[in-house]
Design goal:
By secondary structure, the chain is of the alpha/beta class. Helix content is 36%, strand content 18%. A five-stranded parallel sheet has the order 2-1-6-5-8, sandwiched between helices. Strands 3-4-7 form a three-stranded mixed sheet. A two-stranded antiparallel sheet has the order 9-10. β9 and β10 (211-212) form a beta hairpin. α1 (10-17) packs parallel to α6 (163-174) and α7 packs across α8 (242-248). Bound molecules: adenine (ADE). Adenine binds next to β5.
Length: 249
């Protein structure tokens, strides 16, 4: 999978991408991530990327020209090269960057469809995700009309930019890419994968500050353990998230 992140604030996204599971997925060649600084695609003396909204109103709007230029360089560039050569161009890691696979151009926005586990599962099957992090008051509507295939929100609250939402989406998707998690079954037993929250987990020591691990987990009886976990998941979901419980029933 290849993920491109387009942002006016590349430093916000670069740090977290260099940590933990995501960086291991990149180092292991399972995912390729490219961060694009919108300002590199701006022209003119001041390399202006935003402007006042037509019709007035507060806030600045990201201009169409740098976004169009960046999207064309990122999205259409590889295909144009392929057409000239008559064959797919190998990526840096030796894989083919053909246009036969699925590609989504996603604008992170509070207006979008809400990110759920189910949407993350769907997106993890794509070959390529291009994530646009907006800023200020938003992006010129023509970018959305021309390029964007999906708009995704990470929740009903407004953040100051799309960078953190882009990272949230990338993390939720990358951990589902086959081979990224050490234990292949662990992503499937996560909270939400079957609509229920996860059971409590414990590790050593068996007794800590007077609190003992539930006996059943020490029993070695896998059937009993599974049935205990199922019961815990149902009880916890019923109590904390009756909406999820009703949907899962
Ligand atoms: N940009 C600002 N707020 C956002 C949100 N809640 N989800 C996605 N993108 C956003």
């Amino acid at each position: 999978m290849r993920i491109d992140i387009i942002t006016a604030l590349p430093e916000i996204v670069r740090g977290p991408l260099q940590q933990s599971i995501i960086s291991r997925a990149v180092a292991g060649g399972l995912v390729e991530i490219h961060v694009h600084d919108l300002r590199d695609y701006a022209t003119g003396k001041h390399r202006q990327i935003d402007d006042y909204p037509y019709g007035g109103g507060a806030g600045m709007v990201l201009k169409p020209e740098p976004l169009f230029a960046c999207l064309r360089a990122v999205e259409v560039g590889a295909r144009a090269t392929e057409a000239q050569k008559g064959e797919p161009e190998p990526d840096v890691d030796g894989q083919q960057s053909g246009d036969s696979g699925t590609e989504e151009v996603i604008f992170l926005s509070p207006d979008g469809e809400k990110l759920t586990q189910s949407l993350a599962n769907t997106l993890s099957l794509a070959d390529r995700l291009i994530l646009i992090a907006g800023h200020y008051k938003g992006i010129d509507q023509r970018v959305r009309d021309r390029f964007v295939t999906r708009e995704v929100s990470i929740g009903d609250y407004v953040l100051s930019g799309g960078e953190l939402p882009a990272l949230v989406l990338a993390d939720a998707v990358i951990r589902l890419v086959p081979g990224v998690l050490g234990d292949a079954s662990s992503a499937l037993t996560d909270s939400f994968q079957d609509g229920l929250l996860d059971a409590p987990v414990y590790t050593r020591p068996a007794v800590f500050e007077g609190m003992a691990v539930p006996e059943v987990l020490l029993s070695g009886n896998h059937e009993e353990i599974e049935s205990w976990r199922d019961k815990q998941r149902i009880e916890k979901t019923k109590k904390r998230r009756p909406d999820l419980y009703d949907a899962a029933k």
